[in-house]
Amino acid sequence: MTALKRSRARTLAAASGLALCLALTACNSAADDDSGGSSAGGVNLDDCPDPGAVEKEIKDEITLGYSAPLSGPVAGVVEVSSRGFKARIEAANAAGGINGVPIKIEYLDDAFSPDKAKANVTQFIEKMDVDILNTFGAGQVGAMADDQNAACVPLLYPSSSDPKYLDMKNYPWTVQFLPSAAAETAVLVHLIQEKVPDAVVGVAENETASGKAQSEAFQEAAKEAGLEIKLVTSDTDPNAAATALKEAGATVVYHAGVVGTCGAFDTARGRIGYEPELVVAASNCANAAEYLASGDAADGVTILRYYKDPADPALKDDAAVKEYLDALGDADDPSNSITVAGWLQADLLVNTLQQAADSDAGLSQLGIIEAARDQDYASPILIDGIHWLSTSDRPAGVNGFEPISWSTAEKRFVSAGDVVPAK
């Protein structure tokens, strides 16, 4: 076992102690110690078990350990997302990688179980010695975050937006992909007040960590805006949720759903003839297949988008869309929003790695996390005018959203308004 691998193995044994130390703010920090242990990215190398390993240049290949639900309830959705993610990584490698260093993805199945994700992160760090990590779901991020922060291994752009892990003081090595739940739901609340001034609002809440985080953020945004919520109910039984909201007289529904399960609620609404004036949903509820399966009941469901739609006729000559479609080749339904999101996740990663390689810290774990905390990137696949922003004191995320609504007639999402700045 190399010295680097030995240091990684020791890391997880100390993880709980380091996590407690961070929580109590009793560890060394730049504020306490003038020895220069902190970096421009806000991380403190004095908290790392082996600062030298974190600063070591990555030369042969960049290994990404991806804990993903390759089986279980959302496996199909992850497969759709992976088409875009893998295609962007393959395109980067075909272009020479990151200054000649290729990116390699190593997958472990977590079946959408946080416990399995926690076991996977142990294997990735202790046995596989990966350089960076990724995962799918807020519960999975929660299961991995303490260990990967204690080990100083970057967790970059997981499909999650849990506000807890936006806390850069306690989770400096974690940078999520999905929009801040607070930013997203604030825009949705404003949209509700604008479109349905006297709304009676109900919430259908998915019971996963992702769903609960979205629901809590929506409720907080509604409270701040003076928007009363009549009922919050679980969507575990979609029929019961739809019935309860209908009986409560909700004229507007917010669905704090999770991709792969969003359409079941719309189908249930249609089954009982429940037609609210407006249905808004979390931005991850973007899987076209679910809306198609829901038929007319899904017509008009509104979400927020920040990346381009390859199926939009107005974008047929857009250079980024052309590049994307060429890279996807004959993949099934390349215009699916989930596939585009996967491409964007990987594009953010490629840009971050390249920025690190060109920085003073170089292509190292330190350089990578510093780059991830220093972003103003207009990814070509983002809607024009929207940037990915990140600083050492601002959590990463897009700076705007476009409202879109599902059109049953066109079998795709269509614009429902201009780009709205995110707070």
Automatic annotation (TrEMBL):
Record carries keyword Nucleotide-binding: no
Signal peptide from the UniProt entry: 1-30
PROSITE patterns found in the cross-reference section: PROKAR_LIPOPROTEIN
The organism's place on the tree of life at top rank: Bacteria
Membrane as UniProt keyword: no
All copies of domain Leucine-binding protein, residue ranges: 61-380
Keywords from the UniProt entry: Signal
Family that this chain belongs to: Belongs to the leucine-binding protein family.
The name this protein goes by in its record: ABC transporter substrate-binding protein
